Amino acid sequence: MEETAAFGVLGQRLGLQLHSTDVRIMAGLAARLTPLNVTPARATAIVYIALNAGCDQVTLGRALGINRASTMKAVDELEALGAIERRPGRDRRTNALHLTAAGETLRVRIEEATLEHDRDAFAALTEVERAEFGRLLAKLRRVGADGPALDANKEP
């Protein structure tokens, strides 16, 4: 029996299918990142900080879609790992986040691991299908979960 059939009509819903696929793929990614001592969320934070050196915790939290307490915990964990350091920010109340040399090495390893994971996780799709899937996901992200419906005949 196909996995989605166990959920009846709900199993036919794209949202449930996407969630189920996401859970499986993210579990595989977490397993691949475990040897690096980071979770997928922490890995994302490291790459964000690398690309936005000097950002503060509020900006990082917004980018990751997490609350203030979770952001502080993530920053504390990354600092304890030796991947990032806090430097004086734009004012006395903020810290600017920067990768350390170890953090830069870790970022490279994260990017390699996620590339390998994507190749494995999406191996069932052809190169053309992967590109189309990425395009469709980007289209959905632009609209938002509860946003207005796009004109199906118009390209984004």
TrEMBL record:
Start and end residues of each HTH marR-type domain: 1-142
UniProt-listed PROSITE patterns: HTH_MARR_2 (PS50995)
Statement: the UniProt record of this protein carries the keyword DNA-binding: yes
Entry GO MF terms: DNA binding
Cited SMART domains: HTH_MARR
Keywords on record: DNA-binding
InterPro entries in the cross-refs: HTH_MarR-typ, MarR/SlyA-like, WH-like_DNA-bd_sf, WH_DNA-bd_sf
Domain of life (superkingdom): Bacteria
Signal sequence interval, chain numbering: none
SUPFAM superfamilies: Winged helix' DNA-binding domain
Record's keyword annotation contains DNA-binding: yes
Pfam families from the UniProt entry: MarR_2
Protein name from the UniProt record: DNA-binding MarR family transcriptional regulator
Organism listed in the record: Caulobacter rhizosphaerae
